[in-house]
Amino acid sequence: MAARRTLRIGLIPGDGIGREVIPAGRRILEALPSSLGLNFTFTTHSAGFETFQKQGVALPEETVQALKSDCDAALFGAVSSPTTKVEGYSSPIVALRKRLALYANVRPVKSIRTAASPVDLVIVRENTEDLYVKEEKTYTAADGSKIAEAIKRISETASANIAAMAGDIALRRQRVREASSSSSSSSSDAPSHHTSPLVTITHKSNVLSQTDGLFRETARSVLTSNPAYTSLTLEEQIVDSMVYKLFRQPSAYDVIVAPNLYGDILSDGAAALVGSLGLVPSANVGKDFVIGEPCHGSAPDIEGKGIANPIATIRSTALMLEFLGLEDAAARIYRAVDANLEEGRLTSPDLGGGASTEEVVEDVCRRL
Question: What sign does the CA torsion over 33, 34, 36, 41 have?
């Protein structure tokens, strides 16, 4: 009998409904069939705006060090970031991405196969730079009016890394499509509109010729010069027309790669294609670590009501496993979630259902 593998998972609930959905991720991992040969241990760590209010820091150093030394991966819940400036506060998830070199934010957007127009695409967002370097200043002009400036930083290294990540994901998705089409169970999968892996580079280099221009040129170079990507179809899309086409023709896209800001906006907007942010997962991925993170916020309007949709967290848990190389375990979770959504009997209020968080989690666990 093969030795069982034990994975150490850090749990960072954060604020609001993060404390209600991150336990769902833990329960899903614990419910995986023993035949997969996996064991999990869990530790809980602090971060978020409430942590800042209590400790004066949104991301305690002990949290960072624990993730580095004691965890193989992590799940992050949500942050109640204030919309106005709070002296000394900065987003802990942005800081974690930098401290752990999590250079890619991977956001699949997938509808159920029975949808009238099935959606199945992935947005790959550069995670460490662009306007999110948060180098801003405000000063007074000669006429006494205020001027605010922000640095937009794009590097060749980060652009090359994220392009390669997008290429690798596109190739993996194509392998899955080919395996599904040749499998006897292929009828359970949504039909694909793509016969070859497709990567769409999104930018605004017609205006930002140096920053977005560098992103575009680097991404193209990586995806056209590396023999590993010869099977890719490569295209480009200016970001404003990208928004229009994404909503009008989502089936035209497979993997979209974009700088940080555009990727953030596109991925949140794309959630509307599948009905709710409560369905959309993400993973913050580096060379040595991965953090699964649901795309929704802390949702203070429903905090404590027990009705938060746990599906984004459950899918983020599967995505975390996928980037740990545990694709079989991830696939089990994806299938259980799809079955829950397709049956539609136990869905949360954001999807028009009446099920509680607990009821949805129990139903997915049962399907595992």
Answer: positive
Residue 304's pLDDT band, with cuts at 50, 70 and 90, is very high
For the record, the structure tokens of 58 come out as 């949104």
Are 90 and 81 within 8 A, CB to CB?
Answer: no
Gap between the Cα atoms of 233 and 224, Å rounded: 10
CATH of the domain at 81: 3.40.718.10
CB atoms within 10 A of CB 90: 13
Q: For residue 255, list its beta bridge partners.
A: 122, 199
Plot region of 186 (φ>0 → left; ψ -120 to 50 → alpha; else → beta):
alpha
Burial class (CB in 10 A: 0-12, 13-18, 19+), 203: buried
Strand partners for 14: 78
DSSP H or E stretch at residue 263: helix 260-270
Taking the CA of residue 15 as centre, how many other CA atoms within 13 Å lie in the half-sphere pointing to its CB? 23
Distance CA 365, CA 337 (A): 9
Expressed as residue numbers, the domain containing 191 is: 124-273
Q: Is 341 exposed, middle or buried (0-12, 13-18, 19+ CB in 10 A)?
A: buried
* pLDDT per position as a tens digit, 132-179: 888 999 999 999 999 999 999 999 999 999 999 999 999 988 887 777
Same domain, 286 and 249: no
Q: How far apart are CA 168 and CA 93, in angstroms?
A: 25
* Domain count for the chain: 2
Last residue of a domain, one of 243, 273, 303: 273
Residues in the chain: 368
Looking at the fold, whether 146 and 255 belong to one and the same domain comes out as yes
Contact 24, 88 (CB under 8 A): no
Model pTM score? 0.88
